[in-house]
């Protein structure tokens, strides 16, 4: 493997003495796509929040582009675009105004707002208020904001939630395009078809632990699909 661009070492999170995430480690080379897969409450969002630098790990380290979160949080976060699994939009703002606000915070040229809205198919509704958008359209606004600053690492929490089949396919195409352009991507999902179609490697999480990992191709050599692989890793029928 090339020199990894992302390194996660022994990441754990405890909240009120409860173990939420235990000893997660992985590394990613530039231009690779990792899917974190698991059911509700498996710990996916918690891992992604720690990797995004918005939640402090109890133990372990995250390193992106050789920058340790512990050493330089600001510079670390500048390497990353993060799409959370939920977001409360400001009622009054249009899609374009919402994106322009984020663009100004990140010192991104306004021209990029139109580019990313076009990438997620929202340029025709850019003058409409985001609060009038469907769940899937709001997801696409959040994807667009994560891509604004052309981050080295794109982290997306449940990006296909609320997307219809057309936009799920478009999303997969978009990820492949971003990968070709050199982005490294980590996304979470409980939709294993999305992982199968979009990711290079997967980690299966259960109760905050890694219960299986490998390349999608290596799983598909051994199993009919990722569902069968996931069930086997969890010891299910
Ligand atoms: N701030 C918190 N305080 C207490 N428990 C928490 C907190 N955040 C997460 N948890 C618990 O940690 C576990 C993992 O949560 P997390 O949101 O990371 O899972 P997830 O895999 O993203 O789930 P989902 O697919 O339902 O979004 C859950 O049992 C959740 O209730």
Automatic annotation (TrEMBL):
MF (Gene Ontology): ATP binding; ATP hydrolysis activity
Key words, A-Z: ATP-binding, Nucleotide-binding, Transport
Keyword Amino-acid biosynthesis: no
Pfam families registered for this protein in UniProt: ABC_tran
Superkingdom in the source lineage: Bacteria
InterPro entries from the UniProt entry: AAA+_ATPase, ABC_transporter-like_ATP-bd, ABC_transporter-like_CS, ABC_Transporter_VariousFunc, P-loop_NTPase
Domain ABC transporter, chain residue ranges per copy: 6-232
CDD domains to which the protein is assigned, alphabetical: ABC_DR_subfamily_A
Annotated protein name in UniProt: ABC transporter ATP-binding protein
Lineage per the UniProt record: Bacteria, Bacillati, Bacillota, Bacilli, Bacillales
